[in-house]
Predict the structure.
Amino acid sequence: EVQLVESGGGLVQPGRSLRLSCAASGFTFSDQYADWVRQAPGKGLEWVGRTRDKAHSYTTEYAASVKGRFIISRDDSKNSLYLQMNSLRTEDTAVYYCARAIKFTEVYYLVYWGQGTLVTVSS
Amino acid sequence: DIQLTQSPSFLSASVGDRVTITCRASQGISSYLAWYQQKPGKAPKFLIYDASTLQSGVPSRFSGSGSGTEFTLTISSLQPEDFATYYCQHFNNYPITFGQGTRLEIK
């Protein structure tokens, strides 16, 4: 059974940093692309970024709203995905989901999702 | 960046109704579009990919169509468990973006 479990959320002050983790199980994590998606309270979904697999040099993509502040990384030996969030702003307050991306035909879609972890940025 | 605009933003319907949600892209995205269902407090559920292909296990009352800039999600006969918020998402290029969501409520 595919499982994605996020952790590391909590209350953090503006300007500080926080690192989220996502533990994957039930599939070969090293072969997969993985994404982070967030959802502010009462709002819609916002794509945060993606990491490709080793075959694609672990390259990353980011939304403009987080580019330069957030870093996506992974440790395939631990079946884990990470989101390093720096210079946090109040508008980064959201539930953060990790998702496993699977390739269908030409592109990688977000098929499996974790349950999310809440990050609250407030003084 | 490609913007996705869903309509309507809110939809009230009854069990058994047929409903259609539209997702319009600000530029052509071929068929690289997915639909998700989200219930309160839960993660999104992947329903449809490539605009019209039903993910395994998703009931056949769900269907998708479209290509280019206009896409639709149709539920042929609403069931009580279908009342949720629906999102489209494109995968044509980066950044990937979502529509703003359509909240489907019981009339």
Observations:
- Chain B touches chain A at residues 1, 32, 34, 36, 38, 42-46, 49-50, 53, 55, 87, 89, 91-92, 94-101 (CB under 8 Å).
- The longest strand of chain B covers residues 19-25.
- The CA atoms of residues 37 and 105 of chain B lie 13 Å apart.
